[in-house]
Amino acid sequence: MKPSGKRTHRLPVILAALMLASPATAFDLDSDTPIKVSADSARLDDTEGTAIYTGDVELVQGATQLNAERVVLYRSPEGLSRIEASGEPARYRQPAREGEAMTDARARTITWSAAENRLTFERQAVIEQGNNVFRGDVIQYDTVRRVVTAEGGTPSEESSGRVEMVIQPRGSSNPSDE
């Protein structure tokens, strides 16, 4: 039996704790800290409940940061419900918490959904935390259950098409120190 080109891997909670140990809530809507947005241009549509930002877009809430070429914010009656970011690549950074390293992620598309409590990184997705690295075509992170789901993609010059992970042993500082 020939393996399919697309592979789905469900990783246990322990692996999610290794890769994304900080309780990633992306942008915290319960926080008193505002989300600040800057961009080269913006189009706000109150009727549709959308705001489209283009050109060197930066969203910041405290130390959490999202940079992209284009960002669309969706509002519902309850407030901000979804963020869609795209770029070459778009980049998401979340500060370190409780002794864990900062989370640095990039992908061509990054989506945050408040209703699903999910961060989705698509197309050439890479998540780094300290020296740990996780790559896949699609990486989804359930921020409440702390479960990572990853899919490989079609092999290309830039990617093997498989989900790839590098997890450093406990107590390892930096592999380049050897």
TrEMBL record:
Coiled coil: none annotated. The keyword Transferase does not apply. It is found in: Periplasm. One of its GO terms (molecular function) is lipopolysaccharide binding. InterPro entries: LPS_export_LptA (IPR052037), LptA (IPR014340), OstA-like_N (IPR005653). This is Lipopolysaccharide export system protein LptA. It comes from the Bacteria. The gene is lptA. Gene3D superfamilies: Lipopolysaccharide (LPS) transport protein A like domain. Residues 36-144 form the Organic solvent tolerance-like N-terminal domain. Residues 150-178 are annotated as: Disordered. Keywords: Periplasm, Signal, Transport. GO terms for cellular component: cell outer membrane; outer membrane-bounded periplasmic space. NCBIfam families: outer_YhbN_LptA. GO terms for biological process: Gram-negative-bacterium-type cell outer membrane assembly; lipopolysaccharide transport. Component of the lipopolysaccharide transport and assembly complex. Involved in the assembly of lipopolysaccharide (LPS). Required for the translocation of LPS from the inner membrane to the outer membrane. May form a bridge between the inner membrane and the outer membrane, via interactions with LptC and LptD, thereby facilitating LPS transfer across the periplasm. Belongs to the LptA family. Residues 1-26 form the signal peptide.
